[in-house]
Amino acid sequence: MYYQSTRGNYSRITAAEAIKIGISPDGGLFVPDYIPHLDAADFQELGYLNYQERACRILAKFLSDFTAEEIKACVHGAYNAVNFDHEKIAPLVNLSDNLYIQELWHGPTCAFKDMALQILPHLLTTSAHKTGETSEIVILVATSGDTGKAALEGFKDVDGTRIIVFFPEDGVSEIQKRQMITQEGKNVHVAAVKGNFDDAQNGVKNIFTSQAIIATLLENNIKMSSANSINWGRLLPQIVYYISAYVDLQVGGKISQGDAINIVVPTGNFGNILAAYYASQMGVPVNKLICASNANNVLTDFIKTGRYDRNRKFHKTISPSMDILISSNLERLLYELTDHDASIICRLMQKLSQEGVYEVEDAIQNQLGKLFWADFATDEETIATIKSTWKEKNYLLDTHTAVARNVYAKYLSATGDRTPAIIASTASPFKFGSSVARAVLSDETIKKAHNEFELLKILSAETGLAVPSGLRDLDQKEIKHTTISSKENLAATVLNFLDIK
C-alpha cells in the first residue's frame, strides 16, 4: 500500500516515509491509496483475539512495508500492563440499554491520545530505521491539551528524537498545563503560546512548510516530523479501537455480525471521528457518525450546511481540548468524499487560509448528511449531563465525554433512533476535576479545596473513585519548562530549543 498527499504533489509514498515525514511538504496530509476491507470472516476471527492481536491484524493492512515482527514489536511496546491500567486497553462499559462507553483513557496520561501516542514513537523509530534515516528527528506538536502530554510521555528519552510542544498559555486546564510543564526527559521542550490553539497549530504548520527552516535544520542534520493527528501514524492506531469495540459487542452477544451501530465522538480537530469514518469504510456497519462539539461549533455548522466558517468568536470552554476552529483532519475526509480530487482540496484550503471560509458542493454535502449527524453542547449543558449521569448511572464523565452524551441525547430526541451506540470517552474525569466537581459536589465541599490538586483528592473521596496514578501529586513535581512564546515567534523558539543560531 502506498500513500499520497491530499494536495496532489506527492504520491506512491511508503507508510514508513509518510509516518517519518508527518505532514506532506506541499502542506497536505497523507492518506492511503485505498481503504482495505474486512469481511464477515475477518470480524469473526478478530473475536478470538485480544486487543494487541487485533491491532497487529488491522495495522498490517495499512503498513505493507513493515514486517509482521516489526508491527508486533510496535504494538506490544505500546499496549502493555506497564503503560495501560486495564487489560482490555480500551474497555466497553454498558451505560444503559444499547448505549456503551468506550474508555480510551487507561494509558499513562489519562487521555485517549495515549492510544496513538504510545505506539507512534515505535512506528516512527521503526520507519526511520527502515528508510535509512540518519538525521535526528524533531517532533513538533501543537496541542489543545491532551496531545502535548501524551506526546511528551511517548517520546521522552527516545533515542534519535527530540520533541517540542506548544500549548495555548490560557487555553488548557491546570492539570493539563502542570502535566506538560513538569515533564521529565532529556529530549523534551515545552512552550506556552500567547494565543489560542489555532494560533499554535497554524504556527507549527508554517514551520513544516518553511523551506528556510527546513534547509537550516538539514544543515544541522535534523529533520522534522509531527505527533499531531496530521501524522498518519498517529491517526492509524485510532482506527483499531473502533473496530475492536464493534468486535467486543459481537463477542458479548450485544449485536450480531452485520448489525449497525452509531458512534458518538467529541471532537475538535476531527481526527478521532475521522478514525471512526475509516473504520466504517473498512467494514464496520455504521448507521451514523455523531459529531459532538462544544460552543466552538464550527463542525456542527459545517456538517449541517456544507459551509465551513472559522470567522467567528472563539470560546474558552470547560472542554478545552475541543476549543478549536480549524479542524485539520477534515481535509482528509473531503479528499475521500471527492474521490481523491486534489484540485478541489487545494481550492478549498486556499479559501480557508485566505478568507477563513469555504463551501462544498451539494454532492459532498449530501454525502456528509448520509454519514454524519452533528450538534453541540454548552458548558451549562455539559455540567448538567455530568450531574445527571452520576446521579442516575453512578458513572462519572469528564467534560468532553459529557459533551458527547449530551449531543447523543439530542440525536435520540430528534430521530428516535435506538441503534446500539458507542460513545468515545476521551479522558478521565479527574483530568478536568474542577469542572467535574462543580457538577457532582456541593459548593461547601468544593470550598474546602485551596487548589485544583486538593480538589482531586476531595472528588476521589466523595465519589469513591481513585485518582489515576498519572494525575496524582502533580503539584509536588518540579516545574521544568517556563518558556512563553508569541505566536509570531514559534520558529525562533524552535531554533532556540535546538540551539541553532
Report on this model:
The structure is a single chain. By secondary structure, the protein is of the alpha/beta class. Among the domains are: 92-112 and 233-429, Rossmann fold, CATH 3.40.50; 430-467, no CATH class. Helix content is 45%, strand content 15%. The chain has 22 helices and 15 strands. The chain has helices at residues 15-21, 40-46, 51-60, 68-78, 114-117, 120-130, 146-155, 174-181, 197-208, 211-219, 232-251, 271-282, 298-305, 330-337, 342-355, 362-371, 379-393, 399-415, 433-440, 443-446, 452-463, 490-497; strands at residues 3-5, 30-32, 92-96, 99-103, 136-142, 161-168, 188-194, 222-226, 261-266, 286-293, 307-309, 357-359, 372-376, 421-425, 483-486. The strands form four sheets. Strands 3-4-14-9-10-13 form a six-stranded mixed sheet, sandwiched between helices. Strands 8-5-6-7-15 form a five-stranded parallel sheet, with helices on both faces. The longest helix has 20 residues, at 232-251. The mean pLDDT is 96.
Q: How far apart lie the N and C ends?
A: 41 Å
Which spans of ≥5 residues are poorly predicted at pLDDT below 50?
Answer: none
Which structural class matches the secondary elements? alpha/beta
CATH architecture title of the domain at 92-112 and 233-429? 3-Layer(aba) Sandwich
Outline type: globular
Strand order of the largest sheet: 3-4-14-9-10-13
Mean pLDDT metric? 96
CATH class of the domain at 92-112 and 233-429: Alpha Beta
Map the helices and strands:
Elements (H helix, E strand, L loop, with lengths): L2 E3 L9 H7 L8 E3 L7 H7 L4 H10 L7 H11 L13 E5 L2 E5 L10 H4 L2 H11 L5 E7 L3 H10 L5 E8 L5 H8 L6 E7 L2 H12 L2 H9 L2 E5 L5 H20 L9 E6 L4 H12 L3 E8 L4 H8 L1 E3 L20 H8 L4 H14 L1 E3 L2 H10 E5 L2 H15 L5 H17 L5 E5 L7 H8 L2 H4 L5 H12 L19 E4 L3 H8 L4
Parallel strand pairs: 4-14, 5-6, 5-8, 6-7, 7-15, 9-10, 9-14, 10-13
Antiparallel strand pairs: 1-2, 3-4, 11-12
Helix pairs in contact: 1-6, 3-4, 3-11, 4-6, 11-12, 17-18, 17-19
